[in-house]
Design goal:
The protein has 166 residues and is mainly α. The chain contains six helices and no strands. It has one domain (2-165). It is elongated, with a radius of gyration of 19 Å.
């Protein structure tokens, strides 16, 4: 279970880094073509926007996996260890529920309804862009299940980033 989690997190990190490097290259190309060649490349703005959407949502899944997302943990730190575990499991279940119903089901419906809509410049299906929401939802659900199981079994702390991700 821990090997699966680490492998998935590293894979996510590699994909996010590749997307970021691609965005930097595209942005440099856009600046070069606009100011040096005086003929801006039209596809770069749209590609950057779509890449940013995918990178942000995959980054969200990575943050949930490593438990480094923004959270308010004052109540958890004030409780005894058994209550911390209960709150961590409750939080995990709420996250899984939100990711399942809102992101996965809603994102899938939005993606499917936009499959015939094409982007103005690159003529890419907008459904493929919107597919980032259900894909990240699946990743969040998987990683949150593993994190919750690790907390329940006592293999990781219910507060903050787990030791195995440091």
């Amino acid at each position: 279970m821990l090997l699966f989690k680490r492998t998935l997190e590293r894979l996510l990190l590699v994909v996010i880094c590749v997307l970021l490097v691609g965005m930097v290259c595209l942005m440099l190309w856009q600046v070069f073509t606009r100011y040096v060649l005086a003929a801006p490349a039209l596809f770069t703005e749209e590609t950057l926007r779509f890449t940013m959407i995918w990178m942000a949502l995959l980054g969200t899944a990575y943050c949930f996996g490593t438990r480094r997302h923004l959270s308010l943990e004052l109540l958890i730190y004030l409780c005894p260890l058994w209550a911390q575990r209960v709150l961590a499991v409750f939080n995990g279940l709420i996250t899984i529920g939100f990711a399942s119903f809102t992101m996965l089901l809603g994102g899938w419906q939005a993606s499917q309804s936009a499959m015939t809509q094409l982007s103005p410049i690159m003529q890419v299906s907008m459904g493929m862009v919107y597919l980032a929401v259900p894909v990240s939802a699946v990743l969040i659900i998987l990683l949150q299940i593993v994190n919750t199981a690790l907390v329940v079994t006592g293999r990781t702390s219910p507060t903050g980033p787990s030791e195995e991700t440091l």
